[in-house]
Amino acid sequence: MTSPNLVALRIVLILAGAFIAFTGINIGFGGIATLGWQGQSSFLQVTNEQAFLVQDSHVRFLGGMWLGVGALFFLAATDPAKYRNVLGAALTLIFLGGLARFTQMEFQILFGPDLASSLLAELVGIPLLYFWLLKTTRNKSSAKELAATAGLHGSKEKNA
């Protein structure tokens, strides 16, 4: 029987994956200007088209990677214990991305209404999700590892 804690974790992973995929598509297919799914997209004027297109390509690449992270969250929701390590790595990268926001040094923007919720999710929500993942999958993962180890030892004894 699946524990309610595991069911809740899977639901959170699906919801987070949906939001990540949504923003990944918005950026991956819209580039710097985005598709406008998260608000106003006419916020810049291009003065050097060649340089803009290069940077726009980089942003589209990052959007595609972000879409991949969303797909990873969906996959991890199928068996959080199995995907614990790779999901933990993705969560760590998201946390580091939240820390990287501080390099802009525009704290009125960073803590303003447009970014504060993202920053809170990245620096507080993501670590909480990581520790929840570890707590929820610890026993299941250990049991699988023990079973696999026992299977390996058992086959060696039979062959000896």
Describe the fold and architecture.
The protein has 160 residues and is mostly helical. The chain is 75% helix and 0% strand. The protein has helices spanning 4-28, 49-78, 84-100, 107-110, 116-159. The model has no long low-confidence stretch (mean pLDDT 88).
Number of helices: 5
Report the principal-axis shape. elongated
Number of strands: 0
Largest sheet: none
Q: Tell me what portion of residues adopts beta-strand conformation.
A: under 5%
Helix content: over 70%
> Pairing-aware structural class of the strands and helices?
mainly alpha
N- and C-termini, Cα separation: 38 Å
Order of secondary-structure elements: HHHHH
* Average pLDDT level: 88
Give the low-pLDDT segments.
Answer: none
Rounded Rg: 20 Å
In short:
The chain has helices at 4-28, 49-78, 84-100, 107-110, 116-159.
Topology:
Elements: H1 4-28, H2 49-78, H3 84-100, H4 107-110, H5 116-159
Helix pairs in contact: 1-2, 2-3, 3-5
